[in-house]
Structures are given as structure tokens and as C-alpha cells.
């Protein structure tokens, strides 16, 4: 059974940092394309970042480029999203997903809430 379990969300002040984690199981994590996608209140899904581990390539949405970093720990089957210089517009539920953005998202986690507010 495939499972993706996010953690690390919370309330942070503008300019602060958070690191999200996504624990993966039930598939070959080390060779999978993995993504972070977010959904702000009242808005649709927004792609944030993808890591293509088999070619050591990462990509980011313009809105987070230079502030967010996607990474993995294959020994722990865990995907991370380091978020720095957070802004109020980063407030959203963050989901990790297997696949994306040019290939189908096969599996999704349950999401973790990030709120950026003073």
C-alpha cells in the first residue's frame, strides 16, 4: 500500500522558515519523481516544486524560486521542502505527491497546513 505522510506544517511569522517532511512507503522511492503542491484558501492547486532524483534535477515555481529547496533522504524514504523567507501568500495546505508536473500525479499525501502570519 502506497502511503505519503506529510508533517512539519504550522504557524510562522513572515520572514520565518519551516521544513516540511513527507514520509513515503509502498513504492520505490529512490527512483521516483516527487513533487510538492499547495492549495491556498479559496484557490486551486498550485505546483510548487519537483525533484527528478534519477537525473539529479529540481524545478521550482517562480513564486518560490530562491526561497524554497526540495530534497530527499533515500535512506529514510523521505521528501523535504525547506521554506525560507516565508510570505503571507505562502499560506496554504501543502501536499506531497508522487509524479508531476508533466506526468500524472499518482499518489497524494493528506496535506499539512502552513500559515504565515504575524
E-strand count: 11
Instruction: Give the percentage of residues in beta strands.
Output: over 45%
Q: Quick check: average pLDDT?
A: 95
**What share of the residues lie within helices?**
under 10%
Number of helices: 0
Biggest β-sheet strands, sense, barrel: 7 strands, mixed
Shape descriptor: globular
Helix/strand order, N-terminal first: EEEEEEEEEEE
Distance between the termini: 40 Å
Uncertain runs: none
Radius of gyration: 13 Å
Structural class: mainly beta
Task: Outline the structure in words.
With 118 residues, the chain is mainly β. It is 0% helix and 52% strand. It is built from no helices and 11 strands. The strands form 2 sheets. Strands 2, 4, 5, 6, 9, 10 and 11 form a 7-stranded mixed sheet that branches. The protein has a 4-stranded antiparallel sheet with strand order 1-3-8-7, with no helix packed on it. The N and C termini lie far apart (40 Å). The mean pLDDT is 95.
Short summary:
0% of the residues lie in helices and 52% in strands. By secondary structure, the protein is mainly β.
Key structural traits:
seven-stranded mixed β-sheet; single chain; 52% strand; mainly beta; globular; four-stranded antiparallel β-sheet; 11 strands; 118 residues
Record the SSE blueprint.
Layout (H helix, E strand, L loop, with lengths): L2 E5 L2 E3 L5 E8 L7 E7 L5 E8 L4 E4 L7 E6 L4 E6 L8 E7 L8 E2 L3 E5 L2
Parallel strand pairs: 2-11
Antiparallel strand pairs: 1-3, 3-8, 4-5, 4-9, 5-6, 7-8, 9-10, 9-11
Amino acid at each position: 500500500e502506497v502511503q505519503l505522510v506529510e508533517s512539519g506544517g504550522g504557524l510562522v511569522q513572515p520572514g520565518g522558515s519551516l521544513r516540511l517532511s513527507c514520509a513515503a512507503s509502498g513504492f520505490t522511492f529512490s527512483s521516483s519523481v516527487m513533487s510538492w503542491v499547495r492549495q491556498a484558501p479559496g484557490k486551486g492547486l498550485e505546483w510548487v516544486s519537483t525533484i527528478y532524483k534519477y537525473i539529479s534535477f529540481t524545478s521550482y515555481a517562480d513564486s518560490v524560486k530562491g526561497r524554497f529547496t526540495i530534497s530527499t533522504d533515500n535512506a529514510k524514504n523521505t521528501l523535504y521542502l525547506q521554506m525560507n523567507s516565508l510570505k503571507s501568500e505562502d499560506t496554504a495546505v501543502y501536499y506531497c505527491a508522487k509524479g508531476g508536473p508533466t506526468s500524472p500525479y499518482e499518489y497524494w499525501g493528506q496535506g499539512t497546513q502552513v500559515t504565515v502570519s504575524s
